[in-house]
Amino acid sequence: MPIYEYRCEACDEVSTVFVRSARSEVRPTCEHCGSKRMKRLMSRLSRVKNDQQVMDDLGMPDPGGSIEDPRQIGRWVEKRFEDYGMDVPSETREMIDAARDGELPDPVSDL
Ligand SMILES: [Zn+2]
């Protein structure tokens, strides 16, 4: 579950907000004074990033693009997740395995 930290612009206290999913809209409220004027903090915690954010950061290779060796996709993605100190999510793992079998990943359905 993603965890975001927000700083209250009214009282300057930090609140931690658990988010149901990466796509949920977050309407944080200050735990300390109830203000809704919250500003998202870049967390110090490396694991605060969720899978979707990591994928966004990675920018998945375009399946129709110039990928010459699908095996490179997997190595690169695995390396990036390692950099974030995360396990490769099972969905992504399956995609990598498929890519290594010579199948390119399907385009993300909701893009
Ligand atoms: Zn506050």
Provide an overview of this structure.
The chain has 111 residues and is α+β, with helices and mostly antiparallel strands. It folds into two domains: 3-46, Rubrerythrin, domain 2 (Single Sheet); 49-100, no CATH class. Helix content is 30%, strand content 14%. The chain has a three-stranded antiparallel β-sheet, with no helix packed on it. A hairpin with a 5-residue loop joins strand 1 and strand 2 (14-18). Helix 2 (70-83) runs antiparallel to helix 3 (90-100). The longest helix is centred in the last third of the chain and has 14 residues, at 70-83. It is elongated, with a radius of gyration of 18 Å. Bound molecules: zinc ion (ZN). Zinc ion (ZN) binds at residues 8, 10-11, 13, 30, 32-33, 35.
Q: Span between N and C termini?
A: 22 Å
Small molecules bound in the structure, each named once: zinc ion
Order of helices and strands: EEEHHH
**Biggest sheet: strands, sense, closure?**
3 strands, antiparallel
Query: Low-confidence parts lasting 5 or more residues at pLDDT below 50?
Result: none
- The SS-based structural class is alpha+beta
